[in-house]
Every structure is written in structure tokens, then in C-alpha cells.
Write a structure and sequence with these properties.
seven-stranded mixed sheet; alpha/beta; binds magnesium ion; globular; binds adenosine-5'-diphosphate; disordered C terminus; Rossmann fold; OB fold (Dihydrolipoamide Acetyltransferase, E2P)
């Protein structure tokens, strides 16, 4: 091998070449998960102990937490009368001695060998005249010198010590010195982004001279991880654009203008901005692939309709796909109303303008009517089609599908998105003869579950993202309260009864039971029965849950919408999109069981009319507040809540996976590394712009192949 050492080279070097790694150590390392030098070097320390922060034993003060580095002197284990094991460990440094006591951790006896050096963190107490720490945090540090000592992840089962790991890492890095470790990033980029070079980053992450050096090392190595992901995402996006011919829509034409002018309100500046962003994509030669994030009520429909009208203007068609029949019907009614009386400018028509035709297609529409719709869709007689996934079934042929809008994206998989896109490969109706052109429609995906911008870059990295971050004016904010305890609960019910007496309606969301659908239904039924007998006695109650047939559900929803019901007791099936302006009260029982995003979605079911709405989040214990409930009481801003959610839960939940696709994200965090994500995204965009297939940036391509399995690349795309 010649030239600088690449990650692939490192991955090809077995750990057995390292000093002190024989058969036995090799097997232990394999069990730990390290087989080659790359795995060893990217097994980063879990933490670093700064020895300058350590106290001497003689400095310890009872009741004050401190870190000491001590030697293990004596270990004894015994069992108490009620069969608890206690491991008693005598430790000390040159200044004094200390006792550590571990309860029910019998394995400590094996872990803490006499003579070993350990870092111990805890709160000492005076016990029979001697300082003692109970269950302190302990890290074995061996006899490593140096100011900052790396502590590697350790497990009870695998017997590889942190100082063995440190020694092997050091040995490996030493042996790389001569040839040098190659750096795939050009030095001008490193300079511009103030990133450390790879060799010094690898040294400093394991053996930093200072905490600042460690921080810089981490920053560089995390950047590499993020860059690989972003290059994949941006590369895919670019490939999609290059592979697919889109329609150059005529944007900003008369039809869109008429539509905006005819709205009974002025569009918000956010709506205008997003419409412009979308128009930019629609006019471009490659197909749009854009995500529209906007809180419930931010006015996404107007934006979606504007996009579809751009297609109609050019004699193409628009399609809007919703996740459920109820929502499709709701969209149909809403869109129809928005487009009422709108005329399409038509130069071919002797009579000038023509009527715009909007239709609904769901699985409930059958036989004669369905055949008629399909025929008119295929001959271009329908301008906009709204429906469920019935839209992507075989046999649904568009004359020329120009723009596809998909609402509530998390309910649809990528396959469905792709299926709709493929519907576009049809003949384009021209003024002259029919010409067959394979084109892909422009796709707009809408979601009301906002996630922070940088997280969106990773999760939806193959899409462009637009954000509606401004609410239409004149809305009365929803008042939210935390309710716990009998007194405040009964006050809540009496307020709800008052609202109902004034003709308003109420949602009651039942306690969430995630483990079992069956129990969930039982919980809803119990709540329903109980309320009908007690707090909501004499009122008209309806029940809605996931085990009901879609006909039953729709029937109940329709009744509620038509005000034949005062109260809808429901599970989270009402989460998405249901629009009943007269419903002003939302009660969520056992609210602390729900996630922030879910609570926010649920609350969004009210506050849709002119009357001020209220939301009560009920929990059982008045003594214990829930940070999630607190966040909802504090704010109605979906993006703010998404940030809080990310803080509270970490990124795992946003990535929606435990390991898949994340094996290469060892250091980087969607939460902490927002600036790095932006930098990585920008760098990836730059790289892909000049080198879309990574012919020049061979080493980055190679590292992606090495570190992300095709499966993982696929995952990143799919999620
Ligand atoms: P979303 O789908 O984002 O939840 P909608 O598109 O359903 O929101 O809009 C919610 C309501 O706000 C609708 O009644 C819509 O007519 C109204 N609306 C939309 N844009 C505006 C605006 N700029 N000014 C006033 N009302 C608006
Ligand atoms: Mg909507």
C-alpha cells in the first residue's frame, strides 16, 4: 500500500497487528464490537476526565459532590440479612483514604481490582468518622498519564478495559504516522469552515491536550459524519432532477392571479413567499420535489391550490391526495369553495373562459360515477382531482398530471409518492397533435407536523423545504391549561358544560394506551360510558375509535360536524385534519402520556372558528408537572414546540429508528449540532453542484460506500 492511509485501508487492518492483541484479546475486542483499526479509532471515548479538575481525598467535604482519582486498595463483598449484596471498596490517594459502598452491584468486586486507578465521582458523607461515597460513578482509568484521560464505553460483560483501548488506539495512531492519514476534504474548505484536519482530530478526540482541543476534534469528526449523509441526500435529489424531465409550468398567469384576487382575505406574506418559492420550482425544467411545513391553520390549502392552478393554466391537471376519506372529502369541500366561480382563461374556446372542474375520487365512489370520472380524467375534462390513495390505483389515468399535492406526508410512504409521480408519464395535450413526452409531475408534500429546520434537512434531505411560519391574522389564540386534581377537574367540566349550553362542541381525547389497540378501544369505551353517566350526563355524546369501520367513523364525524352531537369522545383518530369550526373545547385525558407533537396536533382540532377556544390537558398528579404539558401551556407555536420536543426526546425519535441509518452518526447530534448540519448541507450542495456523481471527490464517495450500507442510504431517502 502506498499513499496516505484511507478509512478503507484502516478498515482492512485487523486488530491483531496491534501490540498486545493476541488470540484472547482479539476475541474480547470482537465481542466488544471492534474487529479492525477503523472500528477501534471510531470507538470514541464516552467522556474525558480532566485530571486538573480532580480533588485530592484530603480536600473532600462531606455533602459536596466531587471527582477524585484514587487507587483501589481493598475490596470486600458481603450479603445482608435481607439478601442485599454490598461491595465495600477502600480507596485512597497520597493525601488520604475514602470508602466507596456499592449496593446490589456484585460485579463491582470483579471490576475494581486492587491496585487499579479509578476516577470516582459522588457525594461523600461522614460515616463512623470516615468519608464514604455511596454508589459513586466510577471509571477505570488505568495508569494513563496526561492531563485528560479518555474513558471508553464499557460494559460489564465484555472484559476490555478502557486503558487497554486507549493503549491500542495510541499504538494504532502511532503506526499511521509514517504514511499519514488521508483527508478527503480539501484544505481550503477546512480553512473556510475552521475545521481541524483529520489526523489531528483523531489524535485529539482520543488524547486531547485540552477540552477545547477535544471540542474541535469532535466538531471535525461530527462534520464528516453529517457531510456523508448530506452528500447522499443532496446527491439523490440532484439525480432525481437530472433523471426526470419536468413540465415548465407557466406560473403567475391569469388563473393564479384571479384566484388570489378572489380570496375573501389577503394572503399572508408567508403564503406569498412560499407561493413564489413553489412558482420558481414549477417554472423550472426539472420536477419539483418540495416539502411544505406549516402549522395547523397556517393556510397551506391556498398555497396548494395556487400550485395546482399553475398546472391547470397550462392545460395540465392537479391532484391532491389526503390520507383518509374524511380528509379527502373535507379538502374537496374546502377547495371547491375556494374555487367557486373561478373561470379558466381559454384562448381555444370561442366563448372565452371556461369553468374549472374539481372532482372527488375515493374508494366509496363506485360503478357508473367512477367510470365517468375516470373517463373525464383521462380526456382532460377534469382539472383538479382530490382523493385518497384511490388516486394512485391502477386504472386511474390522467390526461396530463402536472402538479401533485400530498397532504400529511407521514401517512404516506415513499412508494406511494413515487406511484403518484409516475402517473405523470403521459401524453401532454398540446394545441397541435398529441406528442408523447415522458414527464414527471411536480410534487408538493404538505405536513402539519413541523420539525426544526436542521432536523428537516436530515430527515427530509431529499426535498426542498418551504415553511409557512406566519398565522393568518384575526385568530383568537387557544387558551391552554394544565388540569390536575379533583377540584380543577370539576371546574373544567362545568366550564365545558357552559360552552355546550351556548351551542359549542367539545372533543374529549381518551387516555392513550400504546401497547394495545384493544385496550385503547376499551379505554375509549369506558371513558365514554363514564362521562355519559357523570360529568356529561344528559348531553349528546358520540364515540370514535380506530376499531370502528370507516363507514361508522364517517357517520359519527358527520353527525358531529352537523351538530347532532355535543361531545365527541375519541382516541387519537381525530388527530389529523378534522375541521369542525364550532368545536371550541378540547380535553385531553392523561395528557402526560402523549408526545408534544401529538398534543399539538390534537389541540389544533379546535381554534378553527371565530369563538375563542380552550384546551385542557388533564394529568392525574397535581404534584408532578410534565415538561411536555408545560410546553403546550406555554406556547401554541408548532416550531417552538418542535424544538422543545427535540430537546426533550433527543433525535432518535425524529429519525424514527434505533440503529438503522445511524450507525455512522456516532458523534453528530441533530439536536446539538445544528450549525454543523447547515455547514454540511452547504458543503454537500457545493460538492454535488460541480461533481454530481462524485467522480472528483472519489474518497468521499468511497467513505459513503464504506460507512453507509445501501440499506442505510435507502433509509435516509425513505424516511
Ligand atoms: P392548514 O391546512 O394549513 O391547516 P388551511 O389551509 O385549512 O390551513 O386554512 C385554515 C383556515 O384559514 C381556512 O379557513 C382558510 O380559509 C383560512 N385562511 C387561509 N389563509 C388565510 C389568510 N391569509 N387570511 C385569513 N384566513 C386565511
Ligand atoms: Mg389542512
Amino acid at each position: 500500500m502506498t499513499g496516505k492511509i484511507t478509512l478503507r485501508d484502516l478498515a482492512a487492518i485487523d486488530v491483531e497487528v496491534l501490540k498486545g492483541v493476541g488470540e484472547k484479546r482479539k476475541a474480547a475486542l470482537a465481542e466488544y464490537g471492534i474487529n479492525n483499526v477503523l472500528e477501534l479509532l471510531t470507538n470514541y471515548p464516552r467522556k474525558w476526565v480532566d485530571r486538573t479538575n480532580e480533588a485530592r481525598v484530603s480536600d473532600l467535604v462531606a455533602g459536596q459532590e466531587a471527582l477524585v482519582i484514587v487507587e483501589v486498595r481493598k475490596v470486600s463483598k458481603f450479603t445482608t440479612k435481607n439478601r442485599k449484596t454490598i461491595v465495600n471498596v477502600q480507596v485512597g490517594d497520597e493525601s488520604g483514604r475514602l470508602t466507596a459502598v456499592f449496593f446490589n452491584q456484585p460485579w463491582r468486586e470483579r471490576q475494581l481490582k486492587v491496585g487499579s486507578q479509578v476516577a470516582m465521582f459522588g457525594k461523600p458523607d461522614l460515616y463512623r468518622g470516615v468519608l464514604q461515597m455511596s454508589n459513586p460513578l466510577v471509571d477505570l482509568i488505568g495508569d494513563r498519564t496526561g492531563r485528560i484521560v479518555p474513558i471508553y464505553p464499557q460494559s460489564e460483560k465484555v472484559q476490555v478495559s478502557t486503558w487497554e483501548l486507549a493503549t491500542w488506539v495510541e499504538n494504532a495512531l502511532e503506526r499511521c504516522r509514517e504514511r499519514g492519514i488521508s483527508d478527503p476534504l480539501p484544505s481550503d474548505l477546512l480553512e473556510r469552515l475552521e475545521l481541524a484536519d483529520r489526523t489531528s482530530a483523531l489524535w485529539s478526540i482520543h488524547f486531547p491536550d485540552s477540552m477545547v482541543a477535544k471540542q474541535n476534534a469532535r466538531r471535525r469528526l461530527a462534520f464528516d459524519e453529517l457531510l456523508r449523509v448530506q452528500v447522499v441526500l443532496v446527491g439523490r435529489k440532484r439525480a432525481f432532477e437530472l433523471d426526470n424531465t419536468g413540465i415548465r409550468h407557466k406560473v403567475g398567469g391569469k388563473l393564479q392571479q384571479r384566484f388570489i384576487a378572489a380570496l375573501p382575505f389577503a394572503i399572508t406574506s408567508a403564503q406569498q413567499r412560499v407561493i413564489n418559492e413553489i412558482d420558481g420550482d414549477l417554472a423550472a425544467p426539472h420536477p419539483m420535489h418540495r416539502l411544505l411545513q406549516g402549522d395547523v391553520g397556517s393556510g397551506k390549502t391556498v398555497v396548494a391550490v395556487s400550485a395546482m392552478l399553475a398546472a391547470v393554466q397550462g392545460r395540465h391537471q392537479g391532484a391532491l391526495m389526503a390520507p383518509t376519506e374524511v380528509l379527502a372529502e373535507q379538502h374537496f369541500a374546502g377547495v371547491k369553495k375556494l374555487l367557486e366561480g373561478l373561470l379558466v382563461p381559454d384562448d381555444d374556446n370561442l366563448f372565452g373562459d371556461r369553468q374549472l372542474r374539481v372532482e372527488l375520487l375515493t374508494s366509496r365512489i363506485t360503478s357508473e360515477r367512477r367510470r365517468e370520472l375516470l373517463r373525464d380524467l383521462a380526456n382532460g375534462g377534469i382539472d383538479i382531482l382530490i382523493g385518497t390513495h384511490a388516486l394512485i390505483q391502477d386504472g386511474v389515468e390522467f390526461a396530463s398530471l402536472g402538479v401533485v399535492v400530498i397532504d400529511e406526508q407521514h401517512r404516506f410512504g415513499v412508494e406511494q409518492r413515487a406511484a403518484l409521480r409516475n402517473k405523470g408519464s403521459n401524453s401532454v395535450k398540446g394545441a397541435k397533435a398529441e406528442t408523447y413526452v415522458a414527464t414527471s409531475p411536480d410534487v408538493l408534500v404538505m405536513t402539519a407536523t413541523p420539525i426544526p429546520r436542521t432536523a428537516a434537512m436530515t430527515v427530509y434531505g431529499d426535498l426542498d423545504v418551504s415553511v409557512l411560519d406566519e398565522m393568518p391574522p384575526g385568530r383568537t389564540p387557544i387558551k391552554t391549561a394544565w388540569v390536575a386534581g379533583e377540584k380543577s377537574e370539576s371546574k373544567m367540566w362545568s366550564e365545558v358544560r357552559d360552552a355546550i349550553a351556548q351551542g359549542q362542541q367539545t372533543f374529549v381525547v381518551c387516555p392513550l394506551i400504546e401497547e394495545s389497540d384493544k385496550l385503547q378501544v376499551a379505554s375509549a369505551e369506558d371513558t365514554f360510558k363514564l362521562l355519559a353517566k357523570t360529568e356529561l350526563k344528559g348531553l349528546k355524546l358520540g364515540l370514535l375509535h380506530g376499531r370502528m369501520s370507516s363507514n361508522e367513523k364517517d357517520e359519527t364525524m358527520t353527525k358531529f360536524r352537523d351538530r347532532q352531537l355535543d361531545v365527541l369522545v375519541a382516541t387519537t383518530v381525530i388527530e389529523v385534519g378534522v375541521d369542525v369550526p364550532n368545536a371550541t373545547c378540547m380535553i385531553v385525558l392523561d395528557a402526560d402520556r402523549f408526545g408534544i407533537a401529538q398534543l399539538h396536533q390534537l389541540r389544533g382540532r379546535v381554534g378553527r372558528g371565530v369563538i375563542a377556544s380552550r384546551c385542557w390537558l388533564v394529568t392525574s398528579n397535581p404534584e408532578v408537572s410534565s415538561p411536555r404539558v408545560d410546553a403546550l401551556v406555554e406556547s401554541t407555536d408548532g416550531f417552538y414546540l418542535a424544538e422543545v420536543d427535540l430537546e426533550l426526546r433527543g433525535e432518535g425519535t425524529i429519525m424514527n429508528t434505533a440503529q438503522k441509518g445511524r450507525s455512522d452518526l456516532k458523534l453528530a447530534s441533530l439536536r446539538r449540532d445544528r450549525d454543523l448540519i447547515e455547514l454540511a448541507r452547504a458543503a454537500a450542495t457545493e460538492i454535488i453542484a460541480t461533481d454530481p456523481t462524485l467522480k472528483i471527490h472519489k474518497e468521499i464517495r468511497d467513505e459513503i460506500d464504506l460507512l453507509l450500507t445501501p440499506d442505510e442510504e435507502e433509509f435516509l431517502f425513505k424516511n
